[in-house]
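ingest -> validate -> predict -> emit
validate: passed (alphabet ok, no gaps, 154 aa)
predict: started
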Amino acid sequence: MARDSRLSRMLHVLLHIDQAERGLTSDEIGRMLDTNPVVIRRTMAGLREQGYVTSEKGHGGGWKLARPLDQFTLLDVYAAIGEPPIFALGLSDDHPQCLVEQAVNVRLDDALGEARQLLLDQFAKVTLADLSADFRARLAAHGERRCDAQREER
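emit:
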């Protein structure tokens, strides 16, 4: 089963946007993530609707942050991209009348619900400014060496 990497990818993009001296176009972000610009526009639309980014068309346009990184969390971004499934695990519904299946599903559903809530609680504690600070510390430790996507932009 393929993993859903939208959250990680959008966090990556938002930090790049923060570092950029100008707006980044959907084409540039698409090249950065090796995906179609239409996918970028569709995903970024949720972030724009929540007021985290803006977009401008034309020369000098592109995606820009609408607020400082300390004003939104991992949870905010997770919600803005549509709350993709956190776990690949699911409940069986092949035999809904089976008492064994019912017992298994109740316990699994409870455990998965608790685990999901713990993770979302952690997401709420981490701002994008926290991620940026980690990035800056790593950058300083590695002598201004950035990831491949940013080197290609230069």
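The helical segments are 6-19, 26-33, 37-49, 74-80, 99-125, 128-141, 148-153.
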